[in-house]
Design a protein that fits this description.
alpha/beta, Zinc Finger, Delta Prime, domain 3, Rossmann fold, 16 helices, Helicase, Ruva Protein, domain 3
């Protein structure tokens, strides 16, 4: 089974199956019940159900005739003005013969469209409203021009809570008959940051490598720094065991293949939970920020993080 197939396999088929986003789902259900809808703009972080909501709304509206009445495009692949003038315009101007007098065009990654294409799209939306309704999907609504936003009902999706992602992960694990312990689930929650699609992909990748999934497996397949290891390295530095802390750093960089930027981000997270005074934490955060800046300017990662560990060791 190819990685990413579980996302499609467990995608809800109708609006009632969407996780979270209750207020948005209720508003969309009203459209499905009344068999009408305005142009819509779905905005929010990745993996929160925007594309799924658009597909579910379309299925609830058209039932068995959904395939003939829906067109789905990804603007990150086809974002030029010619696509709007040809493919989108030709689809929008032809009326449907079904019960519902309009078709739906789902335009994913709409914030990747050029300004010229968006202005052409605005005119198409205005001219063919009776025969076609548009659902624009984007991560950043600020990149959509104001004339389009003013013509759309805006729905802002929020990241999913840890409880909701955890319940879905357990449900999929049960259906796929894989074992995952609490540390594995916590590892997924730590990395996905409210992105359910990423969480499911991570679960499938881990299941392909191990029959029992723990946080060690999760951080390995994700290529992220393991928080317990980073915390152990910081505690060694705070105890003035600099050589030991540097050895742990080299193990993460060379043996685990963790990038310097991932390590420095995890150091920042762990710094805030250390048993230190507020003044010391502020000094540490400033030092971490300085190190991250130097990494972004192309400095050697191992040298810079080793320097940070040496500064921490000199605190006492």
């Amino acid at each position: 089974m190819s990685i990413g197939l579980w996302v499609e396999k467990y995608r809800p088929r109708n609006l009632s199956g969407i996780v979270n986003q209750e207020e948005i789902v209720n508003r969309l259900m009203t459209f499905a019940e009344k068999k009408t809808m305005p142009h819509c703009l779905f905005a929010g972080p990745p993996g929160t159900g925007k594309t799924t909501a658009a597909l579910c709304l379309s299925r609830d509206l058209y039932s068995d005739n959904a395939t003939a009445s829906i067109m789905e495009l990804n603007a990150s692949d086809e974002r030029g003005i010619n696509v709007v003038r040809d493919k989108i315009k030709n689809f929008a101007r032809i009326r449907t013969l079904g019960e519902i007098p309009f078709k739906i065009l789902i335009l994913d990654e709409a914030d990747q469209m050029t300004s010229e294409a968006q202005h052409a799209l605005r005119r198409t939306m205005e001219r063919y409203t009776e025969s076609c309704r548009f659902i624009l999907i984007c991560n950043y609504s600020g990149r959509i021009i104001d004339p389009i936003q003013s013509r759309c009902a805006v729905f802002r999706f929020t990241p999913l809570s840890n409880n909701e992602i955890s319940e879905r992960i357990k449900y999929i694990a049960e259906k796929e008959q894989i074992r995952i312990d609490d540390t594995g689930i916590n590892g997924i929650l730590e990395i996905c940051n409210g992105d359910l699609r990423r969480a499911i992909n991570m679960l499938q990748t881990a299941a392909a490598q191990s029959e029992e999934i723990t946080n060690q497996i999760i951080y390995s397949v994700a290529g992220k720094a393991n928080p317990p290891k980073v915390r152990e390295m910081l505690e060694a530095a705070l105890d003035r065991r600099f050589i030991e802390a540097r050895s742990q750093l080299r193990a993460m960089l060379i043996e685990d293949g963790i990038s310097e930027s991932d390590i420095i981000r995890q150091i920042h997270k762990e710094t805030l939970s250390l048993d230190l005074s507020e003044d010391t934490k502020m000094w540490l955060v400033e030092a971490v920020g300085e190190t991250e800046y130097r990494l972004s300017q192309g400095s050697d990662g191992e040298i810079q993080i080793s320097s940070l560990l040496a500064k921490i060791a000199l605190l006492k």
